[in-house]
Write a structure and sequence with these properties.
single chain; mainly beta; 41-stranded antiparallel sheet; 1 helix; 56 strands
């Protein structure tokens, strides 16, 4: 098949594709606002009527871009859907390995209103796929892993953050950038805007490696890595962890189609032109099914039990009406900044919210008319909370320049004081007690892990760690020592109680052992006497049975939404559970048929 673009009757571009779904980039001399003729076939010999197309830009409304993902000032309903912009959001952590600092993990994020198409296909991003780009006005757009975007504008000697953002962006002398979060985590971007490293407050580094534009490896401080593999379309096809386990991704028409987890279970994703239409879990259950309007807003959502929720948007009047599976209608009213100001419930009662310029919630009036108010510092830290009248109790909190709380005073005047080291690790907690003060103190290793805790009575517990940051031993104030071993993924293999750690003891006589499936679920627990407890799981990771050392088995079954529906004990006595359309527990029926309703 041949494809052509004409502008002012002149041929700009042509390509021959092997399939109808092959994608191409537009020529550089096509600009926003241009009207072009797009042709399929041969313009001269087949006489096809051209399709007139006006070039437009992707969504650039900073308010919408800021409310992709799950911002704290946004409200959600269902599985979940942003009640203001109709954006369907979804996230899934495919693996996570503990380290001395940030975990070595991989998390995917989907936003139905995100036009970005990257290594996981349209609408998808992952936790290492954060980047920044300069704009023509010298502002910098930072694209966050969950899909939202914040635009930093030039101001003074640096950049001014937008409302609702509490990160600080700095340009370094070598042209790189540093984004510092409230918790002092730093994201370091190279001169091309790609994420290069992640540093926690103790300078534990997650390092990213690239082959040209593609992320190929992510390495934690002790040297363990995730390896990334791609297809010819630059779609991510496989992640390999330090133990050789793999997560496998497949695609259809450029969309993420399936994900095979570490245990071989497959989750399937299907789409319409507007967005992600359905998610089917490894057990074959549909987790959520969405219907969208032409703006990629969810207008109908169906859960695994076929319960339907309807969304009706009225942006002219700044309200969204949602009807749940039981026919109950809830209306959300919002302001010009996409912040929900009133929720009108089915019974006519309301919740009312107000906000400051940084989108912090400054007051909340509940359905009984009781109002709680809040104040904040410029970094979004809550300074005061005032309870509803007539008591008006006030809780106050102060912070240091790293956003750590240093003093909390409750409504009765009781104070708790905290101090920190230069890295922001908690050193002391001081409380007033009768006749004096009670102080708890902490010490740390170079990785920021607690190595000792001294209680107010001066008694100390000590902790040691292995090279991967796993807790290796705990010794209580009496000298009783418990020890642990782990595999390369940080899963506990053995636990030896204090009696096995005294001189002359045989540790094996006092050791518990553990085994796991590929998803990290505990398969067996063996006590020091060799007695084994065994667990089984379904493809979703729900525990389906537990068999004790005497071979007594309890089984568990689940509904389409992974909620416990039946429990059968070793005597074959069954307790069943039902749920209402909102997912709340509705009834429990015991083995004698007695029903408790909720």
């Amino acid at each position: 098949m041949s494809y052509y673009i004409y502008k002012n009757n002149s041929s700009l571009w042509e390509r021959t594709a092997q399939t109808d779904t092959q994608y191409f980039s537009l020529p550089l001399d096509v600009a926003v606002g241009d009207v072009i003729d797009f042709m399929v076939g041969d313009y001269y010999y087949f006489g096809n009527t051209p399709l007139h197309v006006t070039i437009t830009t992707p969504e650039t409304d900073p308010l919408l871009l800021a409310t992709l993902g799950r911002q704290p000032w946004c409200h959600f309903f269902g599985d979940p859907v942003n009640v203001v912009n109709g954006n369907y959001t979804y996230d899934q952590t495919d693996l996570s390995i503990p380290t001395p600092g940030k975990p070595l993990q991989f998390t995917r994020f989907y936003n139905s209103r995100d036009t970005y198409a990257g290594p996981l296909g349209k609408g998808w991003q992952h936790n290492y796929n954060t980047f920044l780009t300069p704009n023509q006005d010298n502002s910098i757009a930072v694209y966050y892993p969950d899909g939202h975007t914040f635009v930093f504008t030039p101001g003074g000697e640096g950049y001014t953050r937008p409302p609702g953002c509490f990160e600080t962006l700095d340009k370094n002398p070598d042209g790189t950038f540093t984004l510092t979060c409230k918790d002092q985590t730093k994201y370091l971007y190279n001169a091309e805007g790609k994420l290069a490293r992640i540093l926690d407050k103790n300078n534990n580094a997650i390092t990213l490696q690239y082959d040209n534009t593609l992320l190929t490896a992510v390495t934690e401080p002790a040297g363990r890595s995730l390896q990334f593999t791609y297809d010819q379309d630059n779609h991510l096809t496989q992640i390999t962890d330090p133990a050789g386990r793999t997560i496998v991704f497949t695609y259809e028409n450029g969309n993420l189609a399936t994900v095979q987890d570490l245990n071989g279970g497959i989750t399937t994703y299907t789409y319409t032109s507007a967005g992600l239409a359905a998610i089917t879990d490894p057990n074959g259950h549909t987790v959520a099914a969405n219907t969208y309007d032409h703006q990629s807003r969810v207008i109908e959502q169906t859960d695994g039990k076929s319960n339907r929720t309807i969304f009706a948007y009225d942006p002219d009047n700044r309200k969204t009406t949602i009807t749940d599976a039981r026919g109950n209608t809830t209306t959300f009213y919002y302001d010009e900044k996409f912040r929900v100001t009133t929720i009108e419930h089915p019974d006519g009662t309301t919740n009312v919210y107000t906000y400051d310029d940084n989108h912090n919630q400054t007051s909340e009036t509940d359905q009984n008319g009781h109002t709680t108010t809040y104040t904040y510092d410029p970094m979004g830290n809550q300074l005061t909370k005032t309870d509803p009248a007539p008591f008006n109790y006030v809780t106050t909190t102060t912070y240091d320049n790293q956003n750590n709380p240093t003093r909390i005073v409750d409504a009765s005047g009781n104070a708790v004081d905290m101090t920190y080291d230069t890295d922001g690790n908690l050193q002391t907690v001081t409380r007033a007690v009768y006749g004096g003060v009670a102080i708890t103190s902490f010490t740390y290793n170079d990785f920021g892990q607690v190595t000792s805790i001294t209680n107010p009575n001066g008694k100390t517990t000590t902790i040691t760690y292995d090279q991967y940051g796993n807790r290796e031993s705990i010794t209580d104030p009496l000298g009783n020592k418990t020890t642990y071993t782990y595999d390369i993924l940080g899963r506990k293999l053995t636990e030896t109680t204090p009696r096995g750690n005294v001189p002359g003891a045989n540790p094996a006589d006092f050791t518990w052992t553990y085994t796991y499936d590929e998803n990290g679920n505990v398969l067996t627990v063996t006590d020091p006497l060799g007695h084994v407890t065994t667990n089984t799981y379904d493809l979703k990771g729900n525990r389906t049975s537990v068999t004790d050392p005497r071979n007594n088995t309890t089984t568990f079954t689940y509904d389409e939404n992974d909620r416990l529906s039946a429990l059968t004990n070793a005597l074959n006595q069954t307790t069943t559970y039902t749920y209402d359309a909102s997912g709340n527990l509705a009834s429990v029926t015991d083995p004698k048929g007695r029903i408790t309703t909720y």
